[in-house]
Structures are given as structure tokens and as C-alpha cells.
Amino acid sequence: MKDIVFLGNDEDAIDRVFSLGRRERVFSLGSAVAGVVNDSNLEEFRTELAGVKYAFSTWGMPCLSKEEIREYFPSLQCVFYAAGSVQAFARNFLACGVRVFSAWAANAVPVAETVFAQIVLANKGFFHTLCGRTYEEKLCTARPFAGNFAADVGIIGTGMIGSLVAQKLKTLDVNVFAFDAFLSDERAKSLGVKKTELCELFERCDVITNHLADNEATRGMLGYDCFSRMKERAVFINSGRGRQVKEEDLVRALAEVPTRFAVLDVTYPEPPAADSPLLKMKNVLLTPHIDGSWGNEVVRMADCMIEAFLAVRRGESTTCEVTEHMLATMA
Predict the structure, then answer these.
(1) Which candidate in 128, 211, 289, 325 is catalytic?
(2) CA 238, CA 209: separation in Å to the nearest integer?
(3) What pTM was estimated for this model as a whole?
(4) What's the CA gap between 183 and 67, in Å, rounded?
(5) What residues form DSSP beta bridges with 4?
(6) Which of 104, 150, 181, 204 is spaced 20 to 30 Å from 35 by Cα?
(7) Cα maximum dimension of the chain
(8) 135 phi and psi, to 5 degrees?
């Protein structure tokens, strides 16, 4: 009887994440269903799925209903999701008594690395120099920037990624401020950050980076009240979610003070609409959602889920299990 299955509407994503021998490694851990199961071929695999206890997946995870889970996966115990956010599918599995594990911590590593690098560059005026055409223009643009010593950096959201960014910033002589409704005084102290209100953070910081959890409460949370308070040469970095930003408000604030800058790895919609002003503004740098796991970095997520699977079989706890309560604050 088969006890392992790969679930995914995007088999190419599974091939990428479980590359470098990781897919074969999963196959060696039990008896696996030969094909990749998606939300359109469930009936085809019905017999084989009856005894499946463990499902591995990544980007492209099918969003199955509770009825489909109960009907086609009556023996399923765990889903090991080798990617980040599980918001789109986790609740129905949890409601059916299926444990959900996510490689969100592994995926947080490259995001934090990239954002840390962007903060360092931003405080040196790097992004602003991209607007200059000549060497002299670039030099004049960079001169007003004070560098990283004693710079004020703001972090919005201190989940896994925001916390990793804060930890990396400890290696610099910068002042770190944070806004997070769930951040306790004790945890703020351990992270080395100073708690502050959202608008105050935008008002005082040289660089602001967004890592809010993606939920109904945070969508559209960053608007003109925030962006209009940015310093003359402040940089806003968004590696969170595009839906958290009111695009027209960001565009307005950037147009009013053209020396402000935005580095956006995410937008809403994604990619941006063809007529989005963000595509034409000189003080905006758009990157195609590359801050997370990229290239061989994605294999780290497969390793994380394989380790979680082995821990479950040994009866051990892991730090990557997701609960219903956690979904309220996770990205």
C-alpha cells in the first residue's frame, strides 16, 4: 500500500524544489505514489490514495476542500509543504485532523539575507544613484547619505523574516525600530529593537522594510498616512505582500517627493498592471519576486520538510509545524 504522495498543480515546481536527489530521497522513505496528484486527477489515483499517510508539496499545492480531503485522503496524517505561506490551503487540512508542516523558516533565510543587503545599500544611497546618468550625477546623488553608522532602520512585522532581519542588523551600528501589534516588550528586547507606532516608524527611519503577515487585517494597511511621512531620502522596501500596500498612495508620496525611493519585490497584482505608474517611476526599483528562495536555494526547503518527516516518524516535535492559531500572525 502506498503511504507517500507528491501533491501539486505545478510539477515543474516540485522538480525544482525536490531536485539534487531530494525527490529520490523522499521515494526511499516509504512506498510512494508514482505520479504527482493534483486537484484534477484525484479520481484517477483514488485507489492508491486510500492508504497515503504523508503528502509532500511545494508552490502549486492544490487547495482541496474538506470534503475532498476526507474522501480521497482518508488515511492522511501530515502535509509537508516545502515552501512558505500555507494560508491558501492549510485550514481545511487542519480541520480534517491533518497536521501541516511548512518550510517557512527555511524560505525566510534568503529573504532576510536579501533585505539585509538592500538595507545596507539603501543607507549608502546605492538605489538613488541608479537614477543618475553620469558619474558626476551619481556622485552628487550619493553625497547626502550618511551611511549605515547610526542610521535608523524600521521593520514592519517581526515574524520569522522580520526577526531574522533584526538579528542580522545587530552586526551593524544602526538603530532598529519595529512595529508589530503582537510584539511583546520582552521579545523586542531580545531582538534588539525599539517598539514604535507605524506612522512614527515611517517618520523617523531612513529605511523601512515590510514583513507583515498576509491576512485580512493587513491588506491595504500601508497607505498615504505612512508614506507621506517618509523622510526626504528614505527608502521603502517591500518583501512582504503587495496587497498590504495601497499602490496609489505609495505612488502619490513618491511623486510628491521624488528623492524618496521604493524597492518592491512584490506588487498587487503581480506582475503589476501594464498601466501601473510603478513601471515608469525613476524612484522605484521593481524586482520579480526574487527575494525568497531562488535557484538552488529552494532545495533548502525540501531538506527542511524531509527532516520534519523523519522527526514525525521518530515521534519528535519540530519547529515547523503550523497550527490554526499561528495562521493569524503568519505571512
Answers:
(1) 289
(2) 6
(3) 0.86
(4) 37
(5) 32, 54
(6) 104
(7) 71
(8) -60, -45
Q: How many helices (H) and strands (E) does the chain have?
A: 14, 13
Q: What pLDDT, on a 0 to 100 scale, did the predictor assign at position 85?
A: 86
pLDDT at 269: 95
The pLDDT tens digits of the residues spanning 54-91 come to 999 999 999 999 999 999 999 999 999 999 889 999 99
The C-alpha cell at 289 is 519576486
Paired residues of 32 in beta bridges: 4
| Residue 254 to residue 131: CA distance in whole angstroms | 14
* 8 Å CB contact between 179 and 125: no
Tell whether the torsion through CA atoms of 179, 185, 191 and 196 is positive or negative: positive
- CA 193 – CA 163 distance, rounded (Å): 10
Sites in the chain below the pLDDT cut of 70: 331
**Residue 196 C-beta-side C-alpha neighbours within 13 Å:** 21
Mark whether 289 is an active-site residue: yes
